[in-house]
Design a protein that fits this description.
The complex is a heterodimer of chains A (about 160) and B (about 120).
Chain A (H helix, E strand, L loop, with lengths): L10 H30 L4 H20 L12 E2 L5 E2 L6 E3 L6 E3 L3 H8 L9 H14 L5 H4 L6 H8 L1
Chain B lengths: L16 H4 L9 H12 L1 H15 L2 H16 L6 H14 L3 H17 L3
Helix pairs in contact in B: 3-6, 4-5
The chains are: A mainly alpha (about 160), B mainly alpha (about 120).
């Protein structure tokens, strides 16, 4: 391999040549690196991520606006398995306390009344008959005993008069 | 010159080493000599490192990478070859080296050549 010119190349030319040689090496490095990244799909992750982002935004829009029956099932949301759940559980079964057929969604309130746990729900049935006696006997015994021991207000009334 | 030429091999006789040993540097150009001296003295490696550092910190390398990425996007990443990328970015790469870096490098190379007394 010989130079194009026969006479000695100047120092400037030689320096330029060396310099270009160095730059070419660096360029080759960069190209090699980019080639590797491109073929391995490392850099493209950016594009893939953008694509996935776009798809997820689309999917979210589709979920917010349900694609199953638009008129009737406006409250039903489709989950990832494609099942739709009504907001109130509709299954019917028998209450283990009173044996009645209860809708699952209404079971908790039913149990409150059924087992006498609620504050006002249970006392509602007996309030009307013993309302006056309750007011008088509050100082004496607890409410539960009033019926068993007879109208306790009797003694009170007796004492007063 | 040809001591034992085996005509069974159809090739010109291997030139003798002795004749070439004298410092007849006609075969080697000045550029090549300088290159050899650069490598032997280790200066070539120093220069390479210097060039790389300067080009990275000036953002030149990032520009080149962007240019590569653009080309890859056009061509499709599976079809691209290294040669192609080199071919595409070399003109731009050579032209876009900042002047300051170029001056610095040329200066150093100049000094080396002068000190190599050629």
């Amino acid at each position: 391999m010989s130079n194009a010119e026969d006479n000695k190349p100047s120092h400037d030319q030689l320096s330029s040549q060396v310099f270009l040689d160095l730059v070419d090496s660096v360029i080759a490095d960069v190209a090699s690196e980019c080639h590797r990244v491109a073929r391995l799909g490392l850099d493209r992750d950016l594009e893939v991520v953008e694509e996935e982002l776009r798809l997820s935004v689309e999917a979210r829009a589709k979920v917010a606006d349900p694609s199953n029956n638009l008129e009737t099932n406006t409250k039903y949301v489709v989950d990832i398995f494609g099942q739709s759940h009504p907001p109130v559980a509709t299954e019917v079964f028998n209450c283990m306390n009173c044996g009645r057929q209860i809708v699952a969604g209404r079971f908790a309130p039913h149990l409150e009344r059924c087992m006498g746990k609620g504050r006002k729900a249970r006392a509602k049935a007996t309030r009307s008959t013993t309302a006056s006696q309750n007011r008088n006997s509050r100082r004496n015994t607890s409410d539960n005993n009033q019926l068993a021991s007879g109208p306790p207000g009797f003694e009170e009334n007796v004492r007063r008069t | 010159m040809a001591r034992s030429v085996k005509h069974s091999a159809n090739r010109p006789p291997t030139p003798d080493e002795d004749v070439r040993d004298s410092p007849e540097r006609d075969e080697l150009t000045l550029g090549e000599i300088i290159n050899i001296k650069l490598v032997e003295s280790g200066e070539k490696e120093n220069l390479m490192e210097l060039v790389r550092d300067r080009l990275v910190e000036s953002g030149w390398k990032d520009e080149m990478r962007i240019a590569c990425r653009e080309h890859v996007k056009k061509k499709g990443r599976k079809d691209v070859t290294v040669d192609e990328l080199i071919r595409v970015i070399t003109p731009k790469g050579r032209a876009s080296v900042p002047d300051a870096i170029k001056e610095e490098l040329l200066d150093r190379i100049h000094n080396f050549i002068r000190s190599a007394a050629l």
